[in-house]
Write a structure and sequence with these properties.
The longest helix is centred in the N-terminal third of the chain and has 15 residues. Strand 11, helix 6 and strand 12 form a beta-alpha-beta unit. The protein has two domains: 115 residues, Aminotransferase class 4, branched-chain amino acid transferase, N-terminal domain (D-amino Acid Aminotransferase, Chain A, domain 1, 2-Layer Sandwich); 166 residues, D-amino Acid Aminotransferase, subunit A, domain 2 (D-amino Acid Aminotransferase, Chain A, domain 2, Alpha-Beta Barrel). The protein has eight helices and 15 strands. The chain has 289 residues and is an alpha+beta fold. The strands form two sheets. Strands 7, 8, 9, 10, 11, 12, 13, 14 and 15 form a nine-stranded mixed beta sheet that branches. A six-stranded antiparallel beta sheet has the order 2-1-6-5-3-4.
Amino acid sequence: MTAVWLNGKLEKLEDARVSAFDAGFQHAVGLFETMMARGSRVVHLNQHLDRLEESLRETRLSDRLKAGPLADAIHATVAAAELETARVRLTISGGDLNLLHGGGNGHEPTILIVAQPATAYPDELYDKGIRATVADSRANPLDPFAAHKTLAYWPRLAELQSAAAKNASEALWFTVSNHLAGGCVSNVILVKDGEFITPLARGEEPEGGLPSPVLPGVVRAEVLGWAAGEGRLVQRKMVDINAVLEADEVLLTNSSWGVLPVTGVEREQIGDGTPGPVARSLRAWWLAE
């Protein structure tokens, strides 16, 4: 079943309500994390909460929330759901907050945790790969919120709708300088001649360089760690559309589907048009995580 934890306690679904004046509803002020739970275990929970704590601090949403109590609340919600595989979403909004009068400190944010049946992605997506489009929107490295998982997701959802209208499953975002950022709901990793190449994410920028608008994805980090453990070269750098189209494999990572192979971008084919050996190996790795 679906379980909901709201502001300190488990609630019945029909009683889980937030204020009409909540800053998340009024102004999209908030952050979220989406996780996968298998039985009672939340996959990569500590990594998600570490990233969230950093975003809470950098966006000045709250300096009072700590990973330990949030982890306890997540575990309680997952246990109440009693699901074999669950999609877990943690949302923290600004609460009844007037950002023009004091915001950031001393207010009570809204904390919502939902554990519900996970989306079942068909095996065909992994066996045959997916197609992606190129998004019309562009990521701005000077936007201080771009590399955080904020509630302002409408532009990404709109691009996903446009991709679906073209029979594609994801849209690739590029920056205003036409360098790859990621997907609407995923990070991107390229494989070329055995090397793993991925755009620089927040916190990976060279000294003196522009800030990155790329979210430091949790599954992305795990995949890059896997690659390093396999003795493969891992490069974090700025790449353009030519690097994408010339890659042997293009991989999309997030916590819902794990690692998803891209076999075509717009009308162009990636590699031989089928998922490659890296994608197949990482699929087995993800299922065992």
